[in-house]
Amino acid sequence: MAFKLDSVVPWGRTLEEYKLMFRLDDEDMLKTFAGFGDGPACFNYEMTERNGSVISFDPIYQFSKEDIEKRIEEVRVIVMQQMRENMDNYVWENIKSLDELENIRMSAMKKFLSDYEKGKAEGRYVFHELPNRLPYEEDHFDIGLSSHFLLMYTSLGYDFHIAAMSEMLRVCKEIRIFPIVDLDANKTDLINNVIGFFKKDYTVQTVKTDYEFQKGDNKLLIIRK
Ligand SMILES: C[S@@+](CC[C@H](N)C(=O)[O-])C[C@H]1O[C@@H](n2cnc3c(N)ncnc32)[C@H](O)[C@@H]1O
Fold this sequence. Notes:
This protein is of the alpha/beta class.
């Protein structure tokens, strides 16, 4: 089935948020990253500014800057309305209000948009849909990341997750996934089963992070070879 932009909710996070979610320390920051489902996050932009190495993969990168910008504007109203209705499900400590949240997200996505065409020309934003095979050899990247994509959308199913994470683990020495709950912040059977599958052949760790915005979303999954 063709990937449709109007089925995506582009909502981008910052480098600071990626550092907290994925517990990236100074040593990690020197490594090579693959960002899966990075969408309109400004992690790639901000890392590139610091001479870091990130390639972001996402099906939305098949669309033009104008199309993505239009979709972000459509989604902004809907997401902010949902946030207003569900404020009690969030921890308002680092981000203190709805206005601040909207400013942080919109500023992150503006940075992404300003970098998008340059980054595409430089091969930093690559149109790719998991679980398709990537054109890289084994262990090409040090760390593969997935923020607010894998394990969250449980409707993608067990087989999708096994195939997608296996391909990530083929091209990355380790992968980190945040959060380890579904969209309602529940730990599901699917998540337990996927983790159980990788425990057979890999070192699997669940680590607490300093990032908790949706209540209960404060754990990171690390899978190493
Ligand atoms: C909620 S956004 C998260 C964006 C970013 N990681 C962040 O946390 O700010 C989820 C992203 O997953 C992407 N996505 C959806 N299906 C995908 C697939 N099969 N392979 C890779 N990315 C996918 C979407 O296009 C979207 O950009």
